[in-house]
Design goal:
261 residues; alpha/beta
């Protein structure tokens, strides 16, 4: 049996404070039944000291681009990767040392295209929020088989890759193998009412558009199942829009109540 190869792809824009921890976690993975093909950084036009951090990891390959945003960086990472599997890692997150060793037995399954695992949620200092773990689903908790991922490119969000799981080609594991960091400089605005829900509505519409336009059909999806899943994503987009509207209305009501106290 061929040992599966893995590309860890670190996605970074101005996370000088955290990217060293991300790279240390990527380059110090415990050995197992896999081959680490590369640790690749896709730098999205960082203007801080991130490049000085990269120099501390001479075995890492760095691809620099002008600042184009997360969508372009994620797509470029999967375009550049050479491993059988791609493990994306946001520059402000980090992997546990046993991540690849733990997942390796699953990576050898020929029909598996997608792996999701749980995560620890930590603050800007690396301290965990509360007890327990989160089931994951974010960029740094996924591994995707490269050839299947490329059928979906270009992507705007990791949600595109969840399609593979929803079509029956994925597995979700309970082990927490990523430290997902929440801090004020996070890319997504989850504080302003309605903003994140509107963003997710747009992503769901984009996923639906991609599923409806795939040609030729990939080996992992029939035309009927892709059409059905596209319709589901449009329904989710509508639900997110309703949530956004509700959140804004509630915020306006609170603001109005406060103004009259």
């Amino acid at each position: 049996m061929t040992v599966p190869s893995v590309s860890i792809v670190v996605l970074n824009h101005n996370y000088e404070r955290y990217v060293g921890e991300a790279l240390a976690s990527a380059t110090s993975q415990e050995p197992g039944a896999y081959r680490l093909a590369e640790v690749l950084v896709v730098d999205d036009g960082s203007t801080d000291g991130s490049h000085r951090v990269y120099e501390k990891f001479p075995g890492v390959r760095v691809v620099g681009t002008a600042h184009q945003g997360f969508e372009s960086t994620l797509t470029r990472g999967f375009d550049e990767a050479v491993g059988d599997w791609v493990a994306p890692l946001d520059g402000d997150d980090s992997f546990t040392a046993n991540k690849l060793r733990t997942l390796a037995p699953h990576l050898s399954q020929p029909d598996l295209l997608f792996v999701q695992h749980a995560e620890y949620v930590v603050d800007e200092h690396g301290n965990r929020f509360g007890e327990g773990t989160h089931p994951g689903g974010s960029t740094s908790t996924l591994m995707v088989r490269r050839h299947a991922a490329r059928d979906l490119l270009p992507v705007t969000n990791e949600l595109f890759f969840h399609v593979l799981d929803e079509l029956g080609h994925g597995v979700r594991l309970p082990q927490p193998l990523t430290r997902y960091r929440v801090h004020q400089a996070s890319m997504t605005d989850r504080r302003t009412p309605g903003v994140f829900a509107d963003y997710m509505a747009g992503v769901c519409e984009q996923v639906a558009d991609r599923l409806e336009s795939l040609a030729p059909l990939p080996p992992w999806g029939s035309s009927m199942r892709l059409a059905s899943l596209a319709a589901e994503y449009r329904g989710r987009a509508d639900s997110h829009r309703r949530t956004a509207t509700c959140q804004r209305q509630q915020a306006e009501m609170r603001a109005g109540t406060g103004a009259h106290v």
